[in-house]
Amino acid sequence: MKSLPVLVIAAVLATACQAPAGAPDTIAAGAAPMQEDAASRTVDALAAAQAAFANGDTDRLARAMHALDALGVQPDDPASATLLQKWESAAPDAPAPSRGRALGPAFRSGELAAGSMVELEQTFLAGQGASIALRTHGGHPVALKVFDGRAKRLCAKSGERMACRWTPPYTQRHVIRIDNPRRAAVRYFISFE
Q1: Residue 136: which domain range?
Q2: Of the residues 22, 55, 90, the one at which a domain ends
Q3: Which of 57, 63, 75, 146 could hold 16 in an S-S bridge, CB 3.0 to 4.6 Å?
Q4: The pTM of the whole model exceeds 0.70
Q5: Residue 172: in which H helix or E strand, if any?
């Protein structure tokens, strides 16, 4: 995959993030497009992989897995690693597992119970652009907040698809909080870069 020209990789990424009209992982009509950084492309490919896996669409799953491989993503927790393995085993001609790669965005997948909240911690480096992208499966809105090491809020957004970008002045741990205001569980994908 690494030897493919940039245009081919871009085409694979664009194809992997497309879904049939009316599919549950499509972006709502009229939704403002996010800037397309690696974290945003990662959550789109993760959502496409989940939808394809759930629908038994192995061709679309293979495209999503190739997109994830091209991005160089790696799971950030054991549950996400297990999910990635499940997708890889179901996809025809799936790429080699992405775990353990040194570069590329990391991701997590999780499910929030009704009315619950989860806090994740992530270190971002001083002077380097940081980005977080989040997308839910099925288009259900959640709230996302990012705090720096001094508990200063850097970002607060809500919706089904969102991204936060900033440049940390210091290398420090950041707290990422995801709230589910719904009365039902919601599955999410989050990517850090």
Answers
A1: 106-192
A2: 90
A3: 63
A4: no
A5: strand 172-179
Residue 66 phi, psi dihedral angles, 5° rounding = -65, -40
CB neighbour list of residue 127: distance below 8 Å, 6 or more residues apart: 167, 168, 169
Residue-wise pLDDT tens digits, 72-91:
888 888 988 899 889 988 88
Residue-wise pLDDT for 173-183, tens only, equals 899 999 999 99
- Residue 104 — pLDDT band, cuts 50, 70, 90? low
Is residue 100 a part of any domain in this protein? no
Which among 59, 90, 121 is the end of a domain?
A: 90
Flag whether 96 is in a domain: no
Looking up residue 153, the CATH number of its domain turns out to be: 2.60.120.380
pLDDT band for position 33 (cuts 50, 70, 90):
very low
The answer to whether the beta carbons of residues 139 and 47 sit under 8 Å apart is no
What total of structural domains would you count in the chain?
A: 2
Contact 159, 32 (CB under 8 A): no
Max Cα distance, the chain (Å): 47
Cα distances (Å, whole numbers) of residue 190 to 8, 45, 46, 97, 180 = 25, 11, 9, 19, 14
